[in-house]
Structure formats: structure tokens, C-alpha cells
Design a protein that fits this description.
This protein is of the alpha+beta class. It is built from 3 helices and 5 strands, in the order H-E-H-E-E-E-E-H.
């Protein structure tokens, strides 16, 4: 995992929840962690990591992910046993 991906991981777990994280950064983080990422119908993005599956909606037309989606990403990573302090 490179420096930018570690920064994204830290941003996802920051408190208060941020709303300025670009979706492409989150998607790159998933891939760096070894997740399988595939495009679903419309703006849906399917992610599978460590046996945990989730579906997220890619934000549009803006590039930044809203607070609710960042919280969902955080919960997904916790369920997949990903902790920012391990990276």
C-alpha cells in the first residue's frame, strides 16, 4: 500500500466523519487491500474483501463521497477486519 492509500485509510477512519474523500481514492484503497471490485448496474460498485461483501453507490455528478457513504465504507472495512493502525 502506498502513502496516498494509507492517507485515504486514515481519512476514512477519522473523526468527525469527512465528506471530502474522492471516490476514486476509496476504490484504489479497496484494490490495494486486495478487494475484488466490480461495476454493477448504474452507479453501483460491488466490493468483496476477506469474505465480506458490500455494494456502494459511486457518487455523481460530484467526485467526493458524502458522510453517510464514508461511514458505510468504514463499517465495511471493520467487518473485513481492516484496522488503520495495521497499516
Amino acid at each position: 500500500m502506498n502513502k496516498k492509500q494509507r492517507q485515504t485509510l486514515k481519512a476514512v477512519f477519522s473523526s468527525p466523519v469527512r465528506s471530502d474523500i474522492k471516490w476514486t481514492s476509496i476504490e484504489n484503497l479497496f484494490k490495494a487491500l486486495g478487494a475484488e471490485v466490480s461495476q454493477g448496474r448504474g452507479s453501483r460498485v460491488r466490493v468483496s474483501l476477506n469474505g465480506v461483501k458490500a455494494v456502494f453507490h459511486e457518487p455523481h455528478p460530484e467526485k467526493e463521497t458524502d458522510k453517510g457513504a464514508v461511514k458505510a465504507v468504514q463499517e465495511f472495512l471493520v467487518n473485513a477486519d481492516i484496522k488503520p493502525e495495521d497499516y
